[in-house]
Amino acid sequence: MVLKATIVGVLVVGAIAVAGTAFGSSQSALSELRNATAAFHDVDKAVDAGYDFELPDVFGDTCIANLSDPGAGAMGVHMVSLARVGNPALDPADPEVLVYERRNDGTLKLVAVEYVVFDTGQPRPSLFGVPFASNDGSRYGLPPFYALHAWVWKPNPSEPLGIFSDWNPRVSCDT
Fold it and tell me: How many whole angstroms separate alpha carbon 80 and alpha carbon 97?
């Protein structure tokens, strides 16, 4: 009985260590992402780096709000790098999209990044141990794609994914 308890204890400690390592490496990657995107709080620097297209939806809105569930919040203004979106390789420190919240004075505040991969029949991608969401693209006039948000510059209380949720209830398109 003591041997069985010892084995179970070792397995539990091992599982916690493995989970801690995965979480730690994800936290390290998120820290690298913050470092890589910190300069883009300055929108001019983002534009200089190729994030120069404000993606509108089919209604012409560039601030993307949740139309079916307003209580879920919004995403914000998507500044897209067309060169990065066209590249199928994922680089956690080089997202395809920067997401900004429009302030009352009209300026933009960096709140998140988004990774985008067009759906060409490949398996669903994932980053940071999180699978991308599938999107049919119709709201944006785009072909189907996979996307993953990372709210690294504004906390996101949404459950169950929090930092990786599509919508953030702390972001609004009402300015």
Answer: 5
Distance CA(148)–CA(126), nearest Å, equals 8
How far is residue 53's CA from residue 132's CA, in Å, rounded to a whole number?
Answer: 22
Please answer whether residues 143 and 123 qualify as being in contact, where contact means their C-beta atoms are separated by less than 8 angstroms: no
User: Exposed/middle/buried for 120, CB within 10 Å: 0-12, 13-18, 19+?
Assistant: exposed
CA gap 124, 131 in Å, rounded: 7
Residue 72's contacts (CB-CB under 8 Å, 6 or more residues apart) are 66, 158, 167, 169
39-82 pLDDT tens trace: 999 999 999 999 999 999 999 999 999 999 988 999 999 999 99
pTM value > 0.70: yes
Write phi, then psi, for 38 (nearest 5 degrees): -55, -35
Residue 171 contacts residue 152 (beta carbons within 8 Å): no
C-alpha 31/C-alpha 10 separation (Å) is 31
Rounded CA Rg of the chain:
19
CA 143, 86, 99, 162 dihedral sign is positive
